[in-house]
Protein 1
Amino acid sequence: MTKEWSPRIVAFFCNWCTYTAADLAGVSRLKYAPNVRIIRLMCSGRVDPQFILDALARGADGVLIGGCHPGDCHYVEGNYKMLRRFTLLRRMLADLGIEPERVRLEWISAAEGEKVKRVINEMTEQLKALGPLGLPRKFAEWDREVIALAREVQDREAAAGPCPERPLTPEPQEAVHA
Amino acid sequence: MKYAYFPGCSLKGTGRAYEESLLPVLRHLGVEVQEIEDWNCCGATAYMAVDEGKACAAAARNLALAERTGLRQMLAPCSACYLVLNKAQHYLNEYPAMRRVVTRALDSVGLQCRGDTAVRHPLDVLLHDVGLDAIKQKVTRPLTGLKVAPYYGCQIVRPYATFDDQANPESMDKLLAALGATVVRWPLKTKCCGGSLTGTLPEAGLRLSYILLKEALKRGADVIATVCPLCQFNLDSYHAKIAARWEPVRIPTVYFSQLMGLAFGLPAEQTVLHRGMVPLRFEPAPAAHA
Amino acid sequence: MKATRDEVRIGFYVCHCGHNIAALVDCPAVARYVGTLPGVVLSRDYKYMCSDPGQELIQQDIREHRLNRVVVASCSPLLHEHTFRSAVEAGGLNPFYFHMVNIREHDSWVHTDRILATEKAKALARAAIERVAHHKPLEIKKVPIHPDVLVVGGGIAGIHAALTLANAGKKVYLVEREPSIGGHMARFDKTFPTLDCAACILTPKMSEVGSHPNITLWTYSEVVKVDGYVGNYTVQVKRKARYIHEDLCTGCQDCIANCVYKEPKFADEFNEGLGKRKPVFIPFPQATPQVVLIDPEVCLNFKRNKNPDGTPVVSDKCKKTCVEACGERGAIDFTQKDELREIRVGTIIVCTGFQTFDARRVPAYGYGIYPNVYTALEIERLVNASGPTGGEVVLRGPKNPDGTPRKPRSIGIIHCVGSRDKKTNLWCSRVCCMYSMKLAHLLKEHTGAEIYNFYIDIRTPGKGYEEFYNKLLEEGTHFIRGRVGEVTDWAMTPEEEGKLVIRVEDTLAGVVRRIPVDMVVLATGLEPRADAAEVRRLFNMSCGGDGWFLERHPKLAPVNTFTDGVFLAGCCQGPKDIPDTVAQAGAAAAEALALIDRGYVEQEPNTAHILDNECSGCKSCIPLCPYTAILFDETRQKAYINEALCKGCGTCVGSCPSGSIVQNLFEDEEIFSEIRGVLAYD
Amino acid sequence: MKIKRTIKYEADRVPGFGREVMSVPGCEALEHCIQCGTCSGVCPLSIYMDYTPRQVMELVRSDFKHEVLRSHTIWLCASCYACTTECPRQIRITDIMYELKQRAIKEGVYPPRFPIPVLAEEFTKMVRDHGRISETRLVTKMYLRTNPLAALGMAGLGLNLLKTGRFSLKQDRIEHRGEMEKLMTAVDRENRKADA
């Protein structure tokens, strides 16, 4: 790697509180780490766990979700709904061997530009300490292993001689994640 | 109730009346104390003026020794010790660089300090752990008719104490009232007595003591009750000088623990009132029902 | 999918915003990079995209290059999305074939490294390019606006806003918590810097409110619930029991004269407790409406204990001379209960005001300890001709030996009490310098006393304010620059005996002074009302870190909130003086009028719909919707969404197990492509 | 009439001094000072000071190192913390005074035979050597070093202390002698390391 590694964070911010808070941080010229890419949604309730998994799978080292404080949701309780899904997802991530710190949910109100800065800086530092997640590379490795394994099986079967019920040439293996 | 006990230098020297009266009172109330083995000077205000790292290290050695006792609470009756030990703990927890230096220094003498012992003042313990009701039960000779000006001084309420109001502390007021004394209200209860300046710059330092004594007299107090060996020393020892410089303002100054002993009916060698230069002449009568 | 890609022709524009973006983001490099991305037929950088030429550029390019998608990388979409959508529409495209990238607030303004900031801009731009390809044409929906307005709070802000709207022919509900409108201004004696009497300028407006055919005035009432959205709010108002039928009371006050309490006995709220009132009372002579009320806490006809629901228990112990006096008017009703009313309005103006800082929180100044320490609001009542002393300034403390009340011969006014202090409120309360000087003038006029002002800085930014300061200097009022250390009652010198002593550093002279005075006035600051957080939730507004209600933009949308159709005016948004409050109230009324007179609001078409084929009928989305917009067709066993009720949060979309709900503008594919885009750099 | 130049030139400043003080733990908030004078207003000793505490704060911030370190103010501070608790900007003024005392002692710029720094020095020496303070002994030593005549004036006090059983010239000490010295040497070593 030519460049020093630095974590990539994908953030999903709700339009009413956290996105506005990030705007406020900008207007206030607060300075924070440039590692976050913010995607705007109307409500944190829109965050589908698949978004988080997809971001991680495509190379994000962490995902940050920002919503209104409990009780302050512009849509009454979208943030609670998110919280519920989030809690489940965190448990699942742990089972997958992904550190729970990589996915973070924060309540940030429109007035809390300072908190945007703090959370992003904190998270960047934490991820730096954890190191890259590198799922795409891992996927590629797994794919290679799977293909190699399949080849090995083929070769072994070929060596063992033809089997009447099965065709001799195996179907081409497709990379699962590439 | 058991506490690690940090007496500090003054309580072994000019302020020995404090220790001599406080320990029997605590025993009488069922509070156990265990003196920290081989404690050293807390560093007081003088050390901070030389090197805050060393001041913290000196204080931290005591915290480390206290942690060794396994008792989670530490009793520090002297105001300066109370402040310095609390301050050291704040510094250790707030400033990682300071913590690093102190941890390594302690390491060089084989000690560790986690910095989680609660440093507490006797007033705090008496009010919040023992409770006024338990204290009232022990009063056999209420101090009826004795007008006491409670004097807290600076360092137990400022800036680290959390057990009482900074501007208008009332723990001693409540305690004295529980002993049956009449509490004199005055606005100077947390004003500075002059501290070590009474010795180093008497003109400035003694003036502060003079103001306190004068105002206490003016408000009709018979005695001033203190919580600090330096305050007691300043308010008790310089009457001749104050009289020569301004006017005589003779009023005794005693430790609150001495008044407690008196109200509990403890013997004279445990109230040690003879150690005061301006003697307190007051004999409480036994309570009618006792 | 490949086919649509081929048809996509994207135009990309990156804005320099002068130096705001260009200083940290290499805009030409971003434009070059985006130009290489698939589907992009044109990529430009330009100085100011939001300018007229910038917008025309987009329109021209759409026509000349047959663009069918546009992406602009500039500031926050909350600021200019509308501008660019309009430009795209003017160019002949559906306005939703547009996406905006925020590289100012989220990039150039918050970073320091030019290379990294440029990288980030590229990543964000790429995400937008990927996303916009999936955009679909959408229609903006128009929803009619209910023309009635709710104004919450009847201080000068609420009064002015209500009158402005009512005079424009709109129907207004004015809801006030206290028994009378008038707010803080009604308690002031004179107003700075003109010294015209507050009552003289306020009471005509109050009575106009009371008699205006377009205004429904509900005092002693509180908003308890707000539902709906801009143009269509349903509001519940609790009308508290005043034990008087408002429509039957004529304001004759015979009941007060005939109360069994011959003398007023209870602390009178309007006069800051300096005066007394009876259990049946009218808050002050000019109260609007002119209707009495009964305080069940002290009235003899009520028991001191409460019913389980919190309502007081009628004892019927009193002789009820008030009822007798009221006679056949029959306005008094001890069985009256709180009542809930529901109203429908299109817009809401919140003017709930402030509270003054509790001076007890600064114990060093002795309020509540020394009787001769006053708050400024108490002095307002004390110098007022209709106040508790008839305008005579006499001390609360011990009287003269002959029994007459003492008058102050020297007075210290301490500025900034509770303000500019990290331990209490850090903000400057803006009005205290001026009102302190006003009180200095009035006290001097009333007593001839020696007056000392203790200030940190004198702040007089207003028309005629500095001139007023100058007038005070001419009057011989002392101004000492220094924040007072303490107010005590112990004397050092004979002249200090029996006085309050102020210890302060005269910072301009560089000396510490002790100044004995008879009276201390604390210029307490303004702070958000204790229940501001609840009120904020009620109206779905935001609060700043300091607790004041947050305006949508500090400069360009000062009376708007983040909730459309809810506006702010007066001190609930931050400390301000009467002229600014009135100006803001007018502005809020104008914003409401603008909405009402347009007649409709445009709604973002970001609503959700269910793909009928894919819905499995699991019903898991139905309880998630806070607006009950999702319904279930039992015969077909499918859910469907009533788009008129849908607000577009997307919560149902995010949790549909079969992925069969689609949110316009936030379709799964759009978001996935955005994720792909932001991560596809390096 | 003796007149004195009071103007300050830029050359009188020691640029960076203020920043340096503000970088010490506990002294950071000084940058928020609004010069309101609350510190002087509550300071019981401000009436004797050559510069009020407020002025000291401004002089520090403006890099007037020599004026500050030579001022009496820093020595008059009795550490009562009234300023620190009352300051509306939560500046820990007492701690800043400590920092200034330290610097004055290090640079040796206090008046000769001035008792306060001497007391501080004797104090630290006693703690270092013995671990504990014997007050009467300490005070006696201080008087002998600064003003032997005043020590005579204190004779009456000594006698009274003796009478009430509170006077002792005996040196109290901790058991683990040498531990304090080791501790302090270690702090010095760590500080040097940190500086390097």
Protein 2
Amino acid sequence: MIDVLYFAWVRERIGKPREAVETQATTVADLVEELKKREPRYAAAFADVSALRVAVDQELADFSTPLSGAREVAFFPPMTGG
Amino acid sequence: MIDVLYFAWVRERIGKPREAVETQATTVADLVEELKKREPRYAAAFADVSALRVAVDQELADFSTPLSGAREVAFFPPMTGG
Amino acid sequence: MSGAGGVRVQREAFDLGAELEAFEAATSGAGAMVSFTGIVRDDAGGRLDRMEIEHYPGMTERALEKIRADAMKRWDLAGALIVHRHGALRPGEWIMMVATAARHRKAAFAAAEFLMDYLKSRAPFWKKEYTSDGAEWVAAKEEDEAALTRW
Amino acid sequence: MSGAGGVRVQREAFDLGAELEAFEAATSGAGAMVSFTGIVRDDAGGRLDRMEIEHYPGMTERALEKIRADAMKRWDLAGALIVHRHGALRPGEWIMMVATAARHRKAAFAAAEFLMDYLKSRAPFWKKEYTSDGAEWVAAKEEDEAALTRW
């Protein structure tokens, strides 16, 4: 069970800020593939992953990052702080 | 007649902040030579001109700067603003 | 925590003068203090109603702490402060501030620029602008990503 | 005069927060504001009683105006402010400040560093430190002169 969080336009497209996901995915990319199969709005949100950033347990990560033991995965567009 | 001003340790060595000087000097360097002949404290203050800076009419200048028409010449150590 | 300052993420406005006074008072031996303040700019020709800043509670604080710690390690600083707002902000309001203090100005300037470069693209904030024409997410700038390569 | 801000030479202390608020309010369209503040530092191990700053009335204002005008010409600034004190200052007191405002942070940072580099060795101020051991003029640093070559 992994908490999956969405921010900014990813949150808007998927229509919720977070959800608990039952998954056997071993990497972030695997998780993305599983999510895309759920519903068209997921497929739309993840259509171009080069436009997305990901954090695993609140640390910036890559799509190839393993999920072993991860409790929280977040997807969002490039950050615009400052 | 030129107003000659002294700042910081130049002022302290010469013992006054300013004086009116009757001079025929054509450059700053000439004026320095005239002043050095006045009294030992002038000679001491101007002993090492590389340690001094000069302004003519409130603009930074060189020792070779001509004095034609100048009303005010100031001598001081390198500046330490900020 | 090393040095004066720290990091804060808050919805409320901050008082820049009071922040700088308190920060400076907590530093010792610093001869130089640099601050940067980001202001909501109306690029929509007077049509900007507000900017809404979303962030990732938990990760935001961790990211800011890390950026601050990296700066403290890299330069000999007496302190570093980061304050960043979230929520709705009007044109002219202050979005965020950083302050750095050091013995000499060079380190204080460099560290403040470093904090800003990392805040821009490594802290989980997202901005949405609301104008009379609708709402739009502010896109990240390539030059902000490129700015990181100099450190 | 172009842009917000200006130059001031004064004996009185200044209120940094009030200065920055007023400066920012006078700029328009600026998304970034940078400030630098110089603080009297006790390098004499707690023995510094005060620093006395002498200046060249008349030339000081001209020199500061020129430095400010050069910065305004060189970068696209919404404003630039220089406030410099003279007279006797105690350890911990603020000696001077500069502030710059621009659309983007890069110009604001660069212009503030430029102002400081020129203030250090092109504005007619001299500092004398009074400690329990006596009084001494602060010597100009070679690195401050060298800093000008980068502009």
Protein 3
Amino acid sequence: MKVNQEVPDMKKLINSPETVLADSLAGVAAAHPDLRVDHANRIIFRATPKAAGKVALLSGGGTGHEPLHGGFVGEGMLDAACAGAIFTSPTPDQMLEATKVVDRGAGVLHIVKNYTGDVMNFEIGAELAAAETGIKVAVVVVNDDVAVEDSSFTAGRRGVGTTVLLEKIAGAAAEEGRDLAAVAAVAQKVNESGRSMGVALTSCTVPSAGKPTFVLPDDEMEIGVGIHGEPGRRRVPLAGAAEVARQLVEPILSDLDFTGAPTIVMLNGLGGTPLIELYVMYAEVRKILDAAGITVARSLVGNYITALDMAGCSVTILKADDDLLRLWDAPVNTSGLRWGI
Amino acid sequence: MKVNQEVPDMKKLINSPETVLADSLAGVAAAHPDLRVDHANRIIFRATPKAAGKVALLSGGGTGHEPLHGGFVGEGMLDAACAGAIFTSPTPDQMLEATKVVDRGAGVLHIVKNYTGDVMNFEIGAELAAAETGIKVAVVVVNDDVAVEDSSFTAGRRGVGTTVLLEKIAGAAAEEGRDLAAVAAVAQKVNESGRSMGVALTSCTVPSAGKPTFVLPDDEMEIGVGIHGEPGRRRVPLAGAAEVARQLVEPILSDLDFTGAPTIVMLNGLGGTPLIELYVMYAEVRKILDAAGITVARSLVGNYITALDMAGCSVTILKADDDLLRLWDAPVNTSGLRWGI
Amino acid sequence: MTNETISVDQLSGWLTRFNDLVTEQVSYLTELDSAIGDADHGSNMTRGMSAVVEKIQASPAGTVDELFTGAGMTLVTSVGGASGPLYGTFFLRIGATAGPVGTLDAPGLASALRAGLGGVVARGKAEVGDKTMFDVLAPALDAFDAALAGSSDIPSAARAAYSAAQTGRDATQALLARKGRASYLGERSIGHIDPGAASTSLLFQALAETLGKE
Amino acid sequence: MTNETISVDQLSGWLTRFNDLVTEQVSYLTELDSAIGDADHGSNMTRGMSAVVEKIQASPAGTVDELFTGAGMTLVTSVGGASGPLYGTFFLRIGATAGPVGTLDAPGLASALRAGLGGVVARGKAEVGDKTMFDVLAPALDAFDAALAGSSDIPSAARAAYSAAQTGRDATQALLARKGRASYLGERSIGHIDPGAASTSLLFQALAETLGKE
Ligand SMILES: Nc1ncnc2c1ncn2[C@@H]1O[C@H](COP(=O)(O)OP(=O)(O)O)[C@@H](O)[C@H]1O
Ligand SMILES: Nc1ncnc2c1ncn2[C@@H]1O[C@H](COP(=O)(O)OP(=O)(O)O)[C@@H](O)[C@H]1O
Ligand SMILES: [Mg+2]
Ligand SMILES: [Mg+2]
Ligand SMILES: [Mg+2]
Ligand SMILES: [Mg+2]
């Protein structure tokens, strides 16, 4: 076990790989009086629970994607987020505890990103909740990453950017008082209507590994990268923003027809890329969508679902409708997303 | 002039160094219907001007510090932001144009970060405004960076993190209907009560330079770095978060007595550092402040005033009072800072 | 002969030795996971197994059930990821099948291990050739059973299992992943050993070494 | 002799040559600014001077005033940073002092340049030894005046100014910066040539070369 004052062997503002999760939760607790952090169970809750009789939303996953998920706990979005070790799903006992705490009598929606570990751990959590409590649990598994092509021969598509939009929209549906089946249905609809694709210019470095997960030559980028540094579709020569935007948007548009409906578009930074580049990319994405006759009703540009210090970005497009747009616009008050409040 | 599709010679999501400012402004315009971008003059305005009779706030500076300043244009904060080339002050004609547009009859406060170029360009802008229009202009020059020790023998302290807090608080004072002198006085008070200090783990890369501004060995960091990659107080061995926090907070605390008043503390990321590390740092900063008997009334953790893709962070502490806290809590609706609305 | 049974203490020694091995090989496991996953398998396994061993040292188990149920629960609640539920279920099923006994004979051990494998399959749905820990676990247990059927004692059967485990581990290199995070790579997963296969091989190395020492 | 006056066209040639030189040396200027500033002096100067030259080419100036007022305004409105107002004011003052004339004689040129220097000081408050462009501009103009006083013609005086400029530029290396962005470095600014001093030396190189060619 490394001690606090040791010199880190990588360029990260941490005390040690072993303490980074606990230390970051301490920072979250110190920064946000609106949140209550259960340090023993590594769960971030709203300080003030929602009204009784409303459906609660629980998500969680490996740490390293901040603000996801803890940054989306608050009015109009999640009720709690379980934090796993870096890039590692949280454990079933966390999901059980969180489920018990957040249930307000109307059941709990588990929002799970489609990774084997997350799915299995949430599954066991839900099994334990069913065995120990009478709490109704519904599950939505987000799998929106078009980078995974042969999804029938794999663990399926990964859950990435659409998770952010889903947590916002389902959160609004729950806040509005819809019942568990209806909130789960909205969540399912968002998942079916959202698609994402990402690019890495550099690898992330997992603190416990101490070195970059993969090595990208100076003149190459990884198209279709996952938010854990999983390799993507292919390595290609580095290109300008317009060409990168094309390589991200085209696979999305060929996967789903986005015409004829208002869309919500997110240009998401992966952690090491500054906002100025995200805006440059967003301009290019919009040019492509405009040319394709796709209507952009709402935009989100920033770091929302990250991969530690990876340089790169992802594009998410959600085919919405009036109901989804209204839910999107509803008030939200979290550290990561806030409006109308 | 490079063409759009050329392969970039650095790992940045841009089209070319020459177009990055225009391209990012195009992205801002596409993403934010609440903003109006004057592309010719490179000015970001509120789409809906504030009510007549209220003091307007104008800021600006070199691009590369996003969300500062354009991300702080909106209700409760700035009325306009002039964007210069990367790390280069905007030009006087921009300030003149913006001043004319934002004035609602009650005068305009220019918020200038203390760099020779910014000061001179805003100065000429104000001179032109005085010569050409009857608009009253007041100026506040932010100089909060304690890294600059011998400020009497230099261009003075640099303007860094306090700028964010000042734009928020003075913006609220203006929104409340205070007159130009009163808004300028509040701004001055914030400047006098705020102190900052930053650290770089890596250099930034200015697109037109094409390579890192400075080279930091793998086991060193730059304490007291500026937001343009200006060298700081000293290079020291890389250290853990607790030790880095100590090296940032101690110079701040020895520069001003923060006891006996509520403080606002910002832990700011410099662009290439992910949120998880900022929370780890924030936890350490709070430990030091708690031990020093300093009361933290409000916290802000995230990327607010950045230095392109630099990895690192800065700490800003503002000694507040009831008035400043109330102004801080007042509604704000910008892309970079939003609450209460 | 004493080698025809295995005691709770020996089984505790197995888990302790497994912890030593994953700790020794932590960088290797993480490196394998960097190539086709997310660079955390080493830290996942050491976090889990060190917690298991801490628990064993704090309060040694009296029965096989207690030992493996404790180890399984510890893994499930401390690892996360894919390996937590998979290794956790493996041990939980071993415990439940063995029951509250102080020793297991060879058939008892074999059927407990096979129940563990059943748990892994129930949880992860892996099939032969999917390039997962299953591709070590299944041939290792087949070799174990075959050795016992050929009237080997438990230590020899464990050595046979370890040998099959190594072969299975190395064979994952040529496979295209169809389960877990590596499956996202498609063709690009070929040429790399599966990290879970490698840690499972260490599990059988630990068993062989623990029993060999006596 | 014709060398005793300088025409608008020659002065336009000076600015054109200055643009060529900063364009050639853009990386060098940026590198100097990387060491003690913010790595933009090269792109600032080329952005400004290429705009100046574009303007000259689009509509050649008829008078010295028109030329330099146009150049100064272009710099002020296209550069930003510290160099925009400083170089801009330098040229604006030259234009205003020279007035709407087609040629300048040697004393006229000398006093226009000195007015430019006055503008730089008025704007930037730099003093001798602050490690700025002033430390090139001041000795270069002193040398220019001294050469004229010693009855040199304008081209020789320009060569003398350039020589003094180079000396001034190199001398900034040993100085501790007290103005501009480099001043934040304190002791660490020592050992680097000031970027603005380097570009100002190019300004005199351009003058010497332009006049030398005739
Ligand atoms: N469905 C599955 N069935 C069996 N084993 C699996 C399955 N999915 C993944 N694994 C195993 O888990 C290993 C990865 O474990 P680990 O890296 O700890 O978890 P994660 O993939 O969540 O990061 C893989 O190498 C593989 O052997
Ligand atoms: N107060 C001043 N007086 C004279 N020259 C100055 C002053 N401040 C800065 N300079 C000059 O400006 C140069 C820097 O110009 P530049 O890099 O273009 O602007 P910035 O510093 O705003 O990035 C310095 O090298 C120095 O020569
Ligand atoms: Mg993992
Ligand atoms: Mg500059
Ligand atoms: Mg893994
Ligand atoms: Mg500069």
